[in-house]
Amino acid sequence: MAYQFEAHIMITGQITCLSGLHIGGTEEGYEIGGMDNPVIKDKISNYPYIPGSSLKGKMRSMTEWIQGKVKGRGEVHTCADPQCKVCRIFGTSAAEQHREEAAGPTRLLVRDAHLAQETLNDERYVSAGVFQTETKTENSLNRITSVANPRPMERVPRGAKFDFELVYGVYDMGDRGRADIENLAEVAAALDMLQASVLGGGGSRGSYMVMDAKGEPVLDMLGDEWRYKPENSELREAVLETVIQKDGAFTSSWKKRRPLPEEESWFENVWGKYMKGEIFEQEGNI
Predict the structure, then answer these.
(1) Closest CA to 1 of 103, 138, 123
(2) H-helix or E-strand containing 253?
(3) Cα 97 versus chain centre, distance
(4) pTM for this predicted structure
(5) Would you say residue 91 lies in a domain?
(6) What is the total count of domains within the chain?
(7) Residue 276 has what pLDDT?
(8) Range of the domain at 19
(9) pLDDT reading at 286 higher than 50
(10) What's the pLDDT band for 143 if we cut at 50, 70, 90?
(11) Considering only CA atoms, which of 5, 49, 28 is closest in space to residue 161?
């Protein structure tokens, strides 16, 4: 199959830490004062950053869940289907050449996300050229002896911002790039799910929080960035209806939900009506 490059689509944005962020790096060693679980840092500036591989891996994982590709023991999904959205967007390993040829070039490139200039200029985060991380100490307790096993974890403090950039390739595989354009919705869905999931380690233990900058304030004593989006109670009475048209296009709209039936549809009653032909009208003999 021939592949014709059509365009690159640039997607830029900013990741704001609303709680401490930990993406592990190389341990410093066993010297006194060394950190057992440091965050990954740029070798030149010694500033923390979010590796593109971490961000892309999380987005791929989210897409696999959305597409129902998580099977067996949870291995990374790969297949030979050229229409597979996961393999087409995120690519396959170099060892799987037959799949690479089927799905074509990897569409999504995710660059490392480095600290935003706004954060670098803030003395709360950078002092005398040194980024000020925080240390969170966690304990695991022996269930019988209650002996504690403390483990420190280095984190990027809340409020720090990272600039990210995604590059999405569009290729003509006989469809003038239409499939790749449509698959951009999967990239958007993965980014949206990322906001409701975890990036980095320790997320289930306080190292992640999802907020909405346009939402309602949590508490007056907290800063203005602590806002959340309350539930839209009107949607309790609606369902989102998605319809595929004859030309392959999708349309979605909110519809008022139908009330739940009030009759007692017990199996014995329904089966009896079915046997009497009261459920539907039969045409001819079976």
Answers:
(1) 103
(2) strand 250-256
(3) 27
(4) 0.66
(5) yes
(6) 1
(7) 83
(8) 4-231
(9) no
(10) confident
(11) 49
